[in-house]
């Protein structure tokens, strides 16, 4: 029992760490995507990440067998789709709306997991998902903007991206639970890398993948690409895969939405966002409340109530 509790806590910490790393990537992704075509950028990220983890874990590669192929292809294809659509969505909408609409996966995940696994999510997971989405809305969206309720192509793409992220989370939970997280991570990176390069080749042939390198600092760009590949792809997605091995998909999706929270914080620190208003502060409170509801199911309130009842009986 204690071992299961320890693994559950370690899983939650791993998911928080992944969300933190991804949160640092928003500003970097925005800068790099203005220079490089999204498919080319993803090709570099996934290729470097795949090779890095393969070198680090080369002894484990001997354990690869046919049972990994199906899950690896499925998870890798969903990962590639989510990243590609999100990057194109970011180009066609504001960063705030992109972050909020991407976080819609915390609502989609429990219902998608219900459809696939036939396991109904409990009321605490559903409540935490909706509370979390409300928090992300307050954190990410500028309510003073004249274009607040306008719907752009980028918004539609980002919503589609939210579905792919939810599908990716559910696919890991339902097909890779008994697999080595490192091997699954390497395999999905390989699949995503191949799909990224194929996508780039097609788009480049059609004249839809252009570079903007005029005045670019090549050294700085290289460092940004390495950080995106090593930290934001290799490390963060391994932490996600490990964390999801021992966490409920809905709870995992709620924790992972902290990506948007950390992203907003780093944007504020780097001067890319406006001030820290009351609505945004309340949004942070809601997100933290969502995680507490998901992780504890408010058990501490029930314990306190039981103790009060017991004291009443004794008196």
Please, could you describe this protein's structure?
The protein is an all-alpha fold and 315 residues long. Helix content is 78%, strand content 0%. The protein has one domain. The chain is built from 14 helices and no strands. The protein is globular, with a radius of gyration of 20 Å.
Number of domains: 1
Broad shape: globular
What is the rounded distance between the termini?
A: 34 Å
User: What structural category characterises the helix and strand content?
Assistant: mainly alpha
Number of strands: 0
Count up the helices: 14
Main sheet makeup = none
H and E string: HHHHHHHHHHHHHH
Strand content: under 5%
Overall mean pLDDT stands at: 83
The level of helicity is over 70%
Low-confidence stretches: none
Radius of gyration: 20 Å
Please write out the topology.
Layout: H1 2-23, H2 25-33, H3 38-56, H4 66-91, H5 95-102, H6 105-117, H7 123-140, H8 153-175, H9 181-205, H10 218-245, H11 249-256, H12 258-269, H13 278-296, H14 299-314
Task: Summarize, please.
With 315 residues, this protein is mainly alpha-helical. The protein has one domain.
Main attributes?
315 residues, globular
